[in-house]
Specification:
By secondary structure, the chain is of the alpha/beta class. Pfam families: adh_short.
């Protein structure tokens, strides 16, 4: 039986991946900061799908907690982890000109350093066994230039592809899943209403997880769920950079009006 460790596994995209794996009979290790919410999510998955669910309380902004999760990935005393989903994240809204870097620092710890540390730990452990899958949740916003969040997600995408290159021949696969706008509590937490976003552009989190896993099964290094987002991403990649910058500026202006 395979076992998947999912960071930020109690809400949004992480919870959708947890449900998708549970439907396949995959045992789970859910990682999140809120113990009460972890226990509730674990109980629901056990009841609904009859799978084994382990919980691990960790704040990935804390380096000791990052190490705790890395140790679980490389543990030889606990059941082996076959799949890592690096999902934990949040919207970094602070300006790049803000002298207070606390929000940027937290974004770096959760969405870059933790991804790097856990990806490395998983890659080593899985390579030793000759099989494994690492899924890094990025974003279509990686292809625009709005703020530090888009910069972070660009790094995640590039990192994930670079990891897939370094894992060649090991039996371990790395895939960046780059969703567009997804109906989760992410935007609510960030204070973004999303009222200006056309309905047809929104993705359902469960559909996203299923499409992402199909792309993982096909061995893709980058997964872009949804045909409309594949088209948008192809366009963004082909546009001259000044046009991408202009589009990013317009999106930022519209987003600021929604707050």
């Amino acid at each position: 039986m395979h076992r998947a460790l999912i960071t930020g596994g109690t809400a949004g995209i992480g919870a959708a991946f947890a449900r998708a794996f549970a439907r396949r009979g995959v045992a789970l290790v859910l990682v999140a900061r809120d113990d009460a919410r972890l226990q509730q999510a674990a109980a629901e998955l056990r009841t609904s799908h009859g799978v084994e669910v382990e919980t691990l309380v960790a704040d990935l902004a804390d380096r000791d907690d990052q190490q705790k999760v890395a140790d679980r990935l490389e543990s030889t005393d606990a059941p082996a982890i076959d799949v890592l989903v690096n999902n934990a994240g949040f919207s970094v809204r602070a300006s790049l000109l803000d002298p207070d870097l606390s929000e940027h620092d937290r974004g770096f710890e959760v969405m870059q350093r933790a991804v790097l540390k856990l990806g490395g730990a998983a890659g080593r452990a899985m390579s030793a066994r000759g099989e494994g899958w690492i899924i890094n949740i990025a974003s279509v916003s990686a292809f625009i230039t709005q703020n530090n969040y888009t910069a972070i997600k660009a790094w995640v995408t590039n990192y994930s592809e670079s990891l897939s290159v370094q894992l060649e021949g090991t039996g371990v696969q790395s895939t960046a899943v780059t969703p567009g706008w997804v109906r989760t509590e992410f935007h609510q937490r960030a204070g973004i209403r999303g009222s200006s976003i056309p309905g047809f552009l929104w993705l359902d989190a469960d559909d996203l997880a299923e499409q992402g896993l199909k792309d993982v099964a096909k061995g893709k290094a980058v997964s872009i769920p949804g045909g409309r987002w594949k088209l948008i991403t192809a366009l963004l990649r082909s546009l001259p950079r000044p046009l991408v910058h202009r589009l990013s500026s317009l999106l930022s202006s519209r987003r600021s009006k929604e707050r």
